[in-house]
Amino acid sequence: MTVDALLSELGSKVELNVWDLDIEQAENCSYDHLRVYGGEDASSALITELCHKTTDRVQVQSHGNNMFVVFNSDFTVSGKGFYGTYNQVRGGCGGRLMAPRGVINSPNWPANYDHDDDCGWLISVD
């Protein structure tokens, strides 16, 4: 089973909250798993791979405005699976700029930018 890409607007991030997780546990998640990628498909960077049982919230946040979620199970042991919610998290960096002129800078300027920043701007001048 594959969940289509979760998208948010440019300059935002996607936050996935898994509230209930019951997936067959195995070394390297080799049987059943929930994989979360930081992009539009499974060729994107893997953010996390889950294969255990918990009712504690597991929170995953994308680096950019896309997230791709894949649930896979094999032919033997099965559990309840997972239940989660997702939402757009505003802020971070990037976004839409619409003005005849303006200022653009990297996050935290003039201090150092953060690790794993993935920013994109759409600039429109009319």
From TrEMBL:
Pfam families in the cross-refs: CUB
Protein name: CUB domain-containing protein
Domain CUB as annotated: residue spans: 1-89, 93-126
Keyword annotations from UniProtKB, A to Z: Disulfide bond, Repeat
Listed InterPro entries: CUB_dom (IPR000859)
PANTHER family associated with the record: OVOCHYMASE-RELATED
Keyword Repeat: yes
The UniProt record lists the keyword tRNA processing: no
